[in-house]
Design goal:
By secondary structure, the chain is of the alpha/beta class. The protein is globular, with a radius of gyration of 21 Å. The two termini are about 25 Å apart. Strands 1, 3, 4, 5, 7, 8, 9, 10 and 11 form a 9-stranded mixed beta sheet that branches. A two-stranded antiparallel sheet has the order 2-6.
Length: about 375
């Protein structure tokens, strides 16, 4: 499910705020990385170790060491894969993308927003999720699919809050982000049980019918709002077919509150929301559509607010968000440009002075599908 609408981070990069990743050539063949699995797969460096990526030829991507015939694939990159093996089912169907297409998100932006994301995610949805996971039939451990994982912030937040052995399958199209996600993944659950990680590279266009076979849980952050109605309905159908719950966090709600209200606030917010709906994407309508889609398949759906609350301690994130928010609004409605320039300058000055407080509303959704009774 490819992120095609410019986010605040994307626009901020164009305005000189956040540096984009360099365009890289991508190897033609990749192998999956299992961390740690005690077997023969490529292993990433554990957090806290000497883990600076080393260039692999002209690709500029971290190189993995393959051990074993099945992993002896040219161009193996840690955290990028998979290569199909005998008896292995495909997990996602991929959109075709050009080899030089630039990644959508810079690690710098994802790192900048991670503390705010962690503080915003709803703790209230964890108890019903834990109860459902504890009662899943026939599970020897949890198999968790994280869609559009980025640098792995969802796993770092959720894995230490769940009991029991966990195997996370991280999905993203960017091999750099997958590498970071694998390296920085947690190694232990809340009760000390082992957490392992597998990465799968690609843009998810739609889940195959057996994509979630054996899945215990599907997670995603900031994903629903960049999907189409069809993609959300397909995701809901896949979760229902697998009988697995879905925890889908930090979807934009279309509402922003700033201290010292300005007459232009609402106009910019409306233009930004229209920008998020470009190309048939759901933007701030995504949670409503997702609730309908999951409920239509018999799931129990719970929604809880998960706002960013940004103050003087978040000056860096607030400034980048402001640039992107206003920039996207102007891109949608160019007539705003002159007034928006003065508005942005004033807001950024207040931010730098530690005087600006912003609430960016999001919603978290937990969909509890009816268990199927099988793995």
């Amino acid at each position: 499910m490819r992120k095609t609408t410019a986010t605040p981070a994307d626009v901020a990069r164009r305005m000189g705020g956040i540096p984009a990743q360099p365009v890289r050539k991508e190897p033609g063949s990749m192998a999956e990385s299992l961390i740690p699995d005690g077997g023969t797969a490529a292993r990433a460096v554990a957090p806290g170790a000497e883990s600076a990526p080393q260039p692999a030829g002209s690709e500029g991507a971290p190189q993995a060491v393959a051990s074993g015939a099945d992993d002896a694939v040219l161009g193996v990159i840690a955290g990028a894969g998979p290569v199909s093996r005998t008896g292995e089912r495909p997990t996602v169907r991929l959109r075709d993308v050009g080899p030089d297409e630039q990644p959508r998100y810079a690690p710098e932006w994802l790192e900048l927003r991670e503390p705010a994301d962690a503080a915003a995610r709803s703790m209230e949805l964890l108890d019903p999720l834990r109860i459902r996971l504890a009662n899943l039939p026939g599970r020897g451990g949890l198999a968790i699919h994280d869609l559009g994982c980025g640098t792995g912030s969802m796993g770092r937040w959720l894995a230490p809050r769940l009991d029991g052995a966990q195997h996370w399958i991280l999905h993203d199209r960017d091999p750099y982000l997958l590498h970071f996600a694998a390296v920085a993944s947690p190694r232990a659950a809340a009760d000390g049980s082992r957490v392992t990680v597998e990465t799968r590279r690609g843009d998810v266009a739609r889940l195959t019918p057996d994509a979630l076979l054996g899945a215990s849980l599907v997670t995603a952050s900031a994903l629903l709002d960049v999907l189409t109605r069809e993609e959300v309905e397909t995701l809901a159908a896949a979760c229902a077919g697998a009988g697995c719950p879905a925890l889908l966090t930090l979807s934009v709600a279309g509402r922003v509150e700033l201290s010292a209200p300005d007459p232009l606030d609402d106009e910019i917010a409306a233009a930004f929301n229209d920008h998020q709906r470009r190309g048939g994407l759901l933007g701030p309508d995504s949670v409503t559509v997702a609730c309908e889609a999951f409920a239509a398949h018999g799931a129990t759906v719970k929604v809880h607010p998960s706002p960013w609350r940004l103050g003087p301690e978040n000056v860096g994130l607030t400034a980048q968000w402001l640039r992107g928010w206003v920039g996207a609004a102007v891109e949608e409605r160019p007539a705003l440009a002159e007034r928006a320039e003065a508005y942005l300058a004033a807001r950024l000055a207040a931010c730098a002075a530690g005087e600006l407080h912003v609430t960016v509303h999001h919603s978290d959704l937990l969909a509890l599908a009816r268990p199927t009774g099988g793995a």
